Amino acid sequence: MTAPGLVGHDDIDALLRRLRLGTTASELHGSLCGYLAGGGSLHGSSVLAALRLDGEATDIGADDLALLGRLARQSETELADAELGFEPLLPEDDRPLAERAEATVDWCRGFLGGFGLAGTAAHAQLSDEAQEVLRDLGTIAASSFDFGSEDEDEDALIEVQEFVRVAAMLLFAECAAPGPSASGSVH
Q1: Is the dihedral of CA 90, 118, 128, 132 positive or negative?
Q2: Which of 70, 72, 137, 160 has the greatest CB tally within 10 Å of its CB?
Q3: For residue 170, which of 121, 119, 118, 132 has the smallest C-alpha distance?
Q4: Contact (Cβ atoms closer than 8 angstroms) between residue 142 and residue 104
Q5: Cα separation, 98 vs 157, whole angstroms
């Protein structure tokens, strides 16, 4: 359940329908988080421009732009949270297992695309652990799921989602989080 005041999966899903963007809410959030984790900056550009997304809607309203801005700030804040409060925006747990599994795949696909769009020099100096995490996210992004035992499948999906959550924070900490090695330059 999304906390009050926070942008949730359903909010983004409705926005994407209004803008007629050819992506899912999970993939958009994954793209945004990957872009931020890869060191991308949104200063001076909109979320849609940074992620190179454009839909069929020609006039994007101020409310929709504000929602995207809130999502960007929320995502960056959560990725940098020292309390590890980041959560990928995925369908609620009461949605069918297959839908949530597919959304996890979409999120990972988006994350990898966004990470690549950030295109910073930091990518060339990723630790072995970060490189392995990227490979694992790629494996998840290319996955399709076979379902058998509902309880086992539910447990497996929870485990995959926890890995994805931690992986995003690790990559953000390594590539994008301000620290002593940050140059302070805007990419």
Answers
A1: positive
A2: 137
A3: 132
A4: no
A5: 10
